[in-house]
Recover the amino acids of this structure.
């Protein structure tokens, strides 16, 4: 396996690097600014330089390259596999209720006896992330590592894109599958938010729309909790996500981020399901714990190969973390690289949702407000 990572700035005419890695078994991971939806030249240039390669990726709320985050750029990693079979697949999606079916179809077409891992990059606004992954999990078991993320649109929440046949389009879920014993993958996902206030029961919800907590309007409670920042919804909700858990498991907690609100129906639309009967609790940020969460995510990674210069780490962090960390955003990226072995190429994006198993050996789930890392390599 050979890896090269590079950046492309918007409007740049600089030559594409390391096109000698082009092959049918090369994957270009490309993460970029929302503006590239209407700027196809950069993707055309990439396709010209890598005509045989598979292009995967999506829009971001900030492009990760090494230990820094950028805007108005493309972060690119070219990965040429020697022994691993690579298969891409895309499927259109127009609304959240289609998510389970799309996930099921994708996984059913990709599953096989030597399937090792699947990476998914999805439209960030037209999908119910937890239902998408539930569909995937209905076809593949925990022996297949599923990771990825939901595309971002900065702090705007209006339109996202994914790469489909080398073009930036919205309304698609894309996946790339990896087959063979030589492919090695490790993953880690951690948060770092502090729960505040009391737990409340979800007494009325529908899929990923929350209406009531303890029989009261969830939106009204949330606005009361936000105070003056309620006027900045939904963007201000990134600062105060919701933690949920089932009543029969006090330790397995998942964080959910608001995508939009419905003032008329008093509904709060989240990136994933908020099931009725679950317990919910508001959360707030702690700078040091967020950065420590990134370090913990890196410590969780274990692969069967020795990481080094020919290893890729895909870093997918939540847009809410970037909003909270502000100028300290690069600190969480530096924290992951400090833990991982020297020479690892790190690229990725700030997302509207992160896809990863909760722990090693478990099936994939949708997370929000986490730093999620996927490390890939090949054995010799």
């Amino acid at each position: 396996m050979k890896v090269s990572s590079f950046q492309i700035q918007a409007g740049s005419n600089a030559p594409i690097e390391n096109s000698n890695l082009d092959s049918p078994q090369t994957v270009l991971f490309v993460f970029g600014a929302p503006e590239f939806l209407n700027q196809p030249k950069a993707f055309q240039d990439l396709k010209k330089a890598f005509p045989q390669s598979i292009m995967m990726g999506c829009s971001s709320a900030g492009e990760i390259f090494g230990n820094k985050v950028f805007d108005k750029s493309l972060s690119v990693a070219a990965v040429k596999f020697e022994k691993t079979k690579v298969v891409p697949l895309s499927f259109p999606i127009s609304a959240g209720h289609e998510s389970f079916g799309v996930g099921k179809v994708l996984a059913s077409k990709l599953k096989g006896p030597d399937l090792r891992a699947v990476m998914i990059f999805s439209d960030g606004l037209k999908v119910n992330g937890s239902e998408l992954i539930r569909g995937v999990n209905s076809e593949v078991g925990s022996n297949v590592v599923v990771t990825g993320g939901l595309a971002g649109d900065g702090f705007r929440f209006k339109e996202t894109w994914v790469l489909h046949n080398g073009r930036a389009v919205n309304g698609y879920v894309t996946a790339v599958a990896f087959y063979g014993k030589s492919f090695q993958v490790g993953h880690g996902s951690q948060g770092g938010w502090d729960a505040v206030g009391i737990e409340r029961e979800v007494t009325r919800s529908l899929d990923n729309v929350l209406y009531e907590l303890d029989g009261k309007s969830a939106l009204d409670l949330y606005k009361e909790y936000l105070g003056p920042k309620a006027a900045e919804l939904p963007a201000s909700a990134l600062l105060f996500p919701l933690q949920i858990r089932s009543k029969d498991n006090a330790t397995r907690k998942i964080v959910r981020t608001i995508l939009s609100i419905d003032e008329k129906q008093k509904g709060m639309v989240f990136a994933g399901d908020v099931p009725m009967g679950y317990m919910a609790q508001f959360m707030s940020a702690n700078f040091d714990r967020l950065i420590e969460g990134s370090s913990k995510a890196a410590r969780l990674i274990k692969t069967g190969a020795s990481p080094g210069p020919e290893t890729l780490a895909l870093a997918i962090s939540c847009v809410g973390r970037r909003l909270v960390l502000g100028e300290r955003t690069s600190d969480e990226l530096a924290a992951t690289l400090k833990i991982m072995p020297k020479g690892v190429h790190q690229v990725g994006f700030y997302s509207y949702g992160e896809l990863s198993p909760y722990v090693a050996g478990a099936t994939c789930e949708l997370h929000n407000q986490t730093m999620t890392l996927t490390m890939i390599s090949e054995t010799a």
Summary: The mean pLDDT is 92.
